[in-house]
Prephenate dehydrogenase
Amino acid sequence: MTDPHRAPARLAARTAGLVRVVGAGLLGSSIGHALQGLGVDVALADASPAQLRLAIDYGAGRAARDDDRPALIVVAVPPDVVADVVERELAAFPGAVVTDVASVKLDPLHTLRERGIDLTHYIGSHPMAGRERGGAIAARADLFIGRPWVVCRDEETPASDLALVEGLALDLGATLLEMTPEEHDRAVALMSHVPQLVASLLAGRFVDAPDEAMNLAGQGVRDTTRIAHSAPELWVQILGANAAPVVDVLDALAADLAGVAEALRAPDGPGARRAVADTIRRGNDGVERLPGKHGQKRRFEQMVVMVDDTPGQLGRLFGDLGELEVNVEDLRLEHSPGAQFGLAEIGLVPGVLRRAVDGLEARGWKIASTSLD
């Protein structure tokens, strides 16, 4: 991440103070808010006049004008129209660098190449950021901070164009990654698109579940299905544009599920318990590969603190930890149905857990569990 105090000068100088954002939804408006905060003039355009007015009213930028001459254009439209909009923007502003932020990179690139479009000044990119809710109302200036931003360059990309797109990502607080379009689409199939389907399929099982079962819902199932709130219309486009890599992952996952189901049909049969254990263990190994705080690989020790469901309790907990000189590395909150308290699962660096537990208990906090138990 770059120094935020240096960001405005770098980006504003390279773009002559003007960035055109086409598409005033969640990503486009969030980019607008972030750039506005850096003192950059943001010209917004959207096919929907109502969406455009809403984004402007919320402060994501101003309406684009015919005399605008942007050096950088960010296309933030649905996947099925990315190629059309990129083609139009390249033609309308031949001196500008055009990037898009769609979650699929290969499909629009193939379409543009088939049309014979000169793509010298086009660079596909994709910030791995989003929310369950969409639209200008849900936009946030800090949406990209600490998130990966993939840039898909090729050997013909001018260095100055690449620097402009990379400067955008860095100034918005993102972490740069370079991939080919093929690498990107395979990666997001595994890390984004299939998880969306898995969450939606699991949450779909709740539709006909009895109320008694739903009352047992804890943080685990909420975490697993959190992204099931996503918009069907958008995901139909995303999954259709990246169908082949998604199917590859789904086929492998289906084989894994079939293997576990077969083992559980005869749980006392030869090798059945080992098959189940290996499945859980492989999941452990996979989770260990997920980057932690600041991209670190190390894991934290955990403690779970019971917190009364009354105002100010979390603030008091953090204040007590601060007095103990204990830094909170990670935090998750869980509420059980009907309970008048919550469970704060706190991640700490190894070596401070015992001090934190003893100090909190001395201050009257009840520790539900720790990784030392």
Notes: The longest helix spans residues 181-204.
